[in-house]
Design goal:
GO terms for molecular function: ATP binding; glutathione binding; glutathione synthase activity; magnesium ion binding. The protein folds into 2 domains: 8-339 and 404-476, no CATH class; 344-403, Dna Ligase, domain 1 (2-Layer Sandwich), CATH 3.30.1490.50. The chain is 38% helix and 25% strand. It contains 17 helices and 21 strands. Strand 10 (256-258) and strand 11 (261-268) form a beta hairpin. The chain is globular. The chain binds adenosine-5'-diphosphate and magnesium ion (2 copies).
Length: 477
């Protein structure tokens, strides 16, 4: 099954696997691939290794580099979308009529737009995710699953993964494969973006505020980025929406203060799901932060640029050209990564989408405007849902997407709460982008690293935080 990855005889060597399992877990702990436990997510007294694969997963070198190369263009695309009110308005018009969460974000966007833009510093830290589609004719191509413009995670923990797999491969005496794992340090690159924006904000005492959840299972992932900032003498605080509600304020210049400290950057590691806003007060806090002079990562328009509805609208003929009128090469590079995306807006086009999905549901994924894994709809469930909403505007809360079919690969998944077993796995490659714009000038635009996540093929959906996928490394072949 594995195509020039770890040979089957190695995967089936029980004695070796047993030995490697123990080595692997200890190595992950030693290298700091850590997560707090489900039971005690806020206690540093009990930690565990974050779930990961025993072996790295083969990824064709050319497709890997294609994903890295298109990233700076995706950065510019997201930034341009965020500056185009007409596009955002039109793209999201049908969605916000039926999707409350997107509507609330959009209403903050509209309110902020009325105000004078005092601080034209924009910081974008995003992650574009892909699967390698394996078509019937045997070709493999890079297809984007989505782009995350808010709270894109695992840039920290994944920075430690190369050394973990290299050590496992050394113990397994797979010295050749060891060479096929690249260095990777998104944490450093994300921190570079934050540091640049902090510098441009221009106040030495002002802090970077990580806006976080009350459940802090994935805190170590944040800490890698945080500590990069501290090492540059940039102060960092961690606060929740509640804290901002309680002690946040704007001064007459709309500088943001929280607990008496001026905030240079609000780095959202929370705020992407409806459940994150526990009351109206959280929404008020979000509005206050958006209205402030602080750099928001992301600002509300960049957050909206990452919605699945926007992704679907971008796939319409002629739309990318509007964002890059003078750059046909850029358009071609970005478009080459698009999977089929279809509107469910009311009208003939949307009606055709419904018919198509009902006729062959296994070929598609039905997606609402949600983040964080576990929200998408697959197979027969697509028919059930669409039949319920096919003649109502409710269907416009969703988009339809071609189901990407990656080639499965055998691997072992290590997680604290489950016994080790050989799984048929599917992988998703993420690429981290960081950019900073001051006024009209892009002062930083980089691809800062990658993330490979692997899941058992029995799961359709879900990321690492959702408990489905685990951390991995590409083995370049
Ligand atoms: P989220 O914002 O919740 O992460 P995604 O669009 O990334 O939403 O979907 C979640 C997961 O569902 C992905 O990580 C992937 O495993 C699966 N998935 C999403 N879209 C597709 C697709 N078009 N083809 C195959 N799998 C998909
Ligand atoms: Mg997402
Ligand atoms: Mg995703």
């Amino acid at each position: 099954m594995s195509t020039s990855g770890i040979p089957e005889e190695v995967l089936r060597n029980e004695a070796l696997i047993k030995r490697l399992e123990e080595v692997a877990k200890d190595t992950a702990l030693l290298h700091g691939v850590l997560m707090r436990t489900k039971d005690k997510p806020n206690s540093p007294e009990v930690v565990n290794y974050a779930p990961f694969t025993l072996f790295p997963t083969p990824v064709p070198t050319a497709l890997f580099h294609q994903a890295l190369q298109v990233q700076t263009h995706y950065n510019r695309l997201v930034d341009r979308i965020s500056q185009n009110p007409n596009f955002l308005q039109e793209a999201l018009a049908s969605t916000i009529k039926v999707d409350d969460f997107t509507a609330k974000l959009f209403s903050i966007y509209k309110q902020v737009q009325q105000e004078p833009q005092t601080m034209p510093i924009v910081l974008g830290l995003n992650r574009s995710d892909y699967m390698l589609d394996h078509s019937a004719d045997g070709r493999t191509s890079l297809k984007q699953i989505e782009i995350n413009t808010i709270a894109a995670s695992f840039g920290g923990l994944t920075s430690r993964m190369p050394d973990v797999h290299r050590h496992i491969l050394k113990v397994a005496n797979r010295l050749q494969e060891r060479q096929q794992i690249l260095d990777n340090n998104p944490a450093a690159g994300l921190a570079r973006g934050l540091a640049k924006a902090w510098e441009l904000y221009g106040s030495e005492r002002a802090v970077v505020m990580f806006l976080v959840e009350d459940v802090q299972r994935n805190i170590y992932d944040h800490r890698y980025v945080e500590n990069e900032l501290w090492s540059r003498d940039i102060p960092v605080i961690r606060r929740e929406f509640e804290d901002v509600c309680r002690s946040g304020s704007l001064d007459s210049d709309r500088r943001l203060f929280v607990d008496g400290q001026e905030v240079a950057i609000v780095y959202f590691r929370n705020g992407y799901m409806p459940q994150n806003y526990k009351s109206e007060k959280s929404w008020e806090a979000r509005l206050m932060m958006e209205r402030s002079r602080a750099v928001k990562c992301p600002d509300i328009s960049t957050h909206l640029a990452g919605t699945k509805k926007v992704q679907q609208e971008l796939a319409r003929p002629g739309v990318l050209e509007k964002f890059f009128p003078e750059e046909p090469e850029t358009v071609a590079l970005i478009r080459a990564t698009f999977a089929g995306l279809y509107t469910l807006d009311m009208g003939e086009e949307g009606d055709r989408t419904v018919e198509m999905a009902l006729a062959q549901p296994e070929k598609y994924v039905l997606k609402p405007q949600r983040e964080g894994g576990g929200n998408n709809i697959y197979g027969q469930e697509i028919c059930r849902v669409l039949e319920g909403v096919r003649n109502s505007t409710e269907r416009t809360a969703y988009i339809l997407m071609d189901k990407v079919q990656p080639r499965p690969c055998h691997n072992y998944l290590l997680r604290a709460d489950a016994p080790l077993r050989l799984c048929v796995c599917l992988s998703e490659l993420g690429v981290f982008g960081a950019y900073v714009r001051k006024g009209t000038e892009m002062v930083m635009n980089e691809c800062v690293g990658h993330l490979l996540r692997t899941k058992s093929s029995e799961h359709n959906d879900g990321g690492v935080a959702a408990g489905v996928a685990v951390l991995d490394n590409p083995l370049l072949v």
